Structure formats: structure tokens, C-alpha cells
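Reviewer 2 asked us to include a model.

Predict the structure of this chain.
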Amino acid sequence: MKTKKTLIQKLFFSFTLFVLLKTCVFSDNVSNNAQEDEGLKVSKFMPLNKPNIRVKIPQFKNGQLDCVIRAEEMTRVDEESVKIKNMEIDFFEDSTKQMSVVFLNAKYNFLNNTLDSNDKTQVIRPNYFTLMGDSMEFDVDKKQGRMTGKVRMVIKNSLEITRKEKKSNYVGLNEFDAFFFSRGINSILDALKNTRR
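Predicted model (C-alpha cells):
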């Protein structure tokens, strides 16, 4: 009985893996209709109420890696949503990781391509900041979201950024980016101060 159950689980896993590979990896050779079923949208092909364990879904745009989605467990709960546990999405640009979004628990909606989480969530931009919050709504297409509850931001190299801003009036390419980044952070901090009053 146990070997029969193990065999069924292996077959189920192989079929799920085949569907994911077919829609994700080979999607560049398929029409635009199939490209609408990339990334997290391939989870709509998962069987209802059957957990898929250790899921990894790459997504490509114009032949280049756009993001990699990893989850400990994904379960399709109805015709438009999937429950996800311990998920991390790594976004890439020119083959370098630009941002990571980490969810403890989330619910993905196929219709509007958004993730909703009422648990601790992190957004990590290497070399810039780490943002942590109690809950988050995240739009996968736009790569942006909204955190609510207690939100905490840790800015990396903030002293270096502010020193460059004060050091000279000449703005080189790297200093230009740092200047606008620090202005954006200062605007966020001012807005937070005003809302607390």
C-alpha cells in the first residue's frame, strides 16, 4: 500500500513538474496566449486542494530571466486563487538580482495577478534597503506593493549616500543615483513623521 501511494505521489509530482516546465521554460516559442500563463499564473493548472511541495517557477521575458518564484508549498483553493507558504520571489534585470520579496503566508489571485499577505513580509533591495511589514498587497506585474501595519525600513549605506550628497555640487552617474535615492527616502521619512502627528 505504501509503495503504491509513493508511486502515485511521484507520478503526480512528475505531471505537475511537466506542466510547469511546459508553460514556463518553453513559453518563448508559444503564442501570446500562452505567455499570459507564465510565472505564478501556471499555478492555475494545479489540481484543486492538492498541496505542491518545494515549488520553483522561473519566468522569462524576451528570452531573459525576469524572476524566480520559490515556495515551500502551494495549494490551489478555488478557480481564482492559490494559498502559498514560505515564498520568495527574486526579480532579475540583466541577469543580476534586483529585488526579493519574502512572504510567510500569502494568497495569490489569478485574475488581477496580486499577492495578499496578512503575515510578516519583507522586500529586500540588495545594497539599498530592507523593508519589513505586518501585511502586504503586491502586484506581480508592476513589481510594487503596499505594506500596512508596523512597517520598518533598514537603509544600507545611508551614511555613504548622505555624505555624497553633501560633499560636492558635481553629480556623477553613481552620485546621481544615490542623490535621488536619498531624496526619496527623506520624502518617505517626512511623510511618516507627518502621519504620526
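Residues 157-197 form one domain. Residues 15-35, 168-173 have pLDDT under 50 and may be disordered. We have added this to the supplementary material.
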